[in-house]
Amino acid sequence: MTIDKSLKIKKGVSRSRNVLTRVERIEKLQSQDRWTDETSPFSLPKIRVYKVVLKKKKKAKTEDAAESK
């Protein structure tokens, strides 16, 4: 069964995922030098996923106060 085009999200998943696919986990392990070619792709160790949190920029109150004086 397919999903109607009007119900699909155009960007995909916009929030951060807390589960990686097997390929993504292997890539992370390779970048950390914890993966060799002899290692089995089954029962991989857990990989921590860091959430990216962007803080909102504060308006410069000092500039506004200086301009109003």
What attributes characterize this protein structure?
69 residues; single chain
Structure notes:
- With 69 residues, the protein is mainly alpha-helical.
- The chain has one domain (18-69).
- Helices cover 26% and strands 0% of the residues.
- The protein contains two helices and no strands.
- The protein has helices at residues 22-31, 61-68.
Oligomeric state of shown chains: single chain
Described by strand count, sense and barrel closure, the largest sheet is: none
| Rg estimate, integer Å | 22 Å
Count of spatially separate domains: 1
Residue windows where pLDDT falls under 50 for at least 5 positions: none
How far the N terminus sits from the C terminus, by CA atoms, comes to 66 Å
Strand content is: under 5%
Mean pLDDT: 79
Number of E strands: 0
Structural class: mainly alpha
Name the helix and strand elements from N-terminus to C-terminus, one letter apiece: HH
Please summarize what this structure is.
By secondary structure, the protein is mainly alpha-helical. The protein has one domain (18-69).
Compile the SSE list and pairings:
Blueprint: H1 22-31, H2 61-68
